[in-house]
């Protein structure tokens, strides 16, 4: 029987140039089928993942379904290559009556053993909280979400 290796904490927690103290909403690795004829990853593939990543905090804040109404800005700052390990960070920057605007930043860990990390994409998207008829509904007050957390009294 083999004994599992004990990886030193310093190796498992090393910050490879990713934003400190933040958790990515998504981590993905594009494969050859996601690349164009030049071997770079399609912008459309990246846009789809950014939309999914941004929708996650929006859905939590809306406490239900959301629809993407607008891509306010989208910048491909650096190319993405097959085999890059992508981390998608998403932060809510504005909450309106029915809308939630989210900033998404994407980092690629490239040549991972050399800890080479590049910011590849930055985007701002707006989502609308929708009801079961796909019509806009009010974003609930944040207090109602906090009180609904499991294990919280009241
Ligand atoms: C999302 C949808 C239900 C909203 O309905 P609507 O009648 O267009 O909504 P409204 O005009 O009332 O606007 C809703 C909110 O979006 C905001 N909004 C509208 N157009 C916007 C734009 N171009 N950019 C940013 N925000 C916008 C409004 O300011 C409003 O926000 P607020 O309530 O916080 O003030 C409808 O537009 C829709 O179904 N769109 C298709 C969604 C879709 O298929 N997305 C792709 C797949 S998820």
UniProtKB/TrEMBL annotation:
Q: Which EC class heads this enzyme's classification?
A: hydrolase
Entry's Gene Ontology molecular function annotations: long-chain fatty acyl-CoA hydrolase activity
> Domain HotDog ACOT-type, which positions?
20-133
Q: Name one GO biological process term.
A: fatty acid catabolic process
Its GO CC terms are: cytosol
Q: What is its EC number?
A: 3.1.2.-
Which residues are in coiled coils?
Answer: none
Tell me the keywords, alphabetical order: Hydrolase
What PROSITE patterns is this protein classified in?
HOTDOG_ACOT
As for family, the record states: Belongs to the acyl coenzyme A hydrolase family.
- This chain's protein is named Putative acyl-CoA thioester hydrolase
This protein's species is Duganella phyllosphaerae
């Amino acid at each position: 029987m083999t004994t599992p290796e004990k990886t030193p904490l310093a190796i498992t927690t090393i910050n490879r140039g990713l934003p400190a103290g933040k958790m990515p909403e998504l981590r993905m690795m594009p494969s050859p089928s996601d690349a164009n004829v030049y071997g770079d990853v399609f912008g459309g593939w990246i846009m789809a993942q950014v939309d999914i990543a941004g929708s996650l905090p929006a859905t939590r804040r809306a406490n239900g379904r959301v629809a993407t109404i607008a891509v306010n800005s989208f910048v491909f700052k650096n190319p993405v290559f097959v085999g890059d390990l992508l981390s998608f960070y998403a932060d809510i920057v504005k909450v309106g009556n029915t809308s939630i605007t989210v900033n998404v930043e994407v980092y690629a860990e490239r040549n991972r053993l050399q800890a080479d990390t590049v910011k590849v994409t930055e985007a701002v998207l707006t989502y609308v909280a929708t009801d079961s008829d796909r019509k806009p509904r009010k974003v609930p007050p944040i207090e109602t979400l906090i009180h609904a957390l499991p294990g919280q009294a009241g």
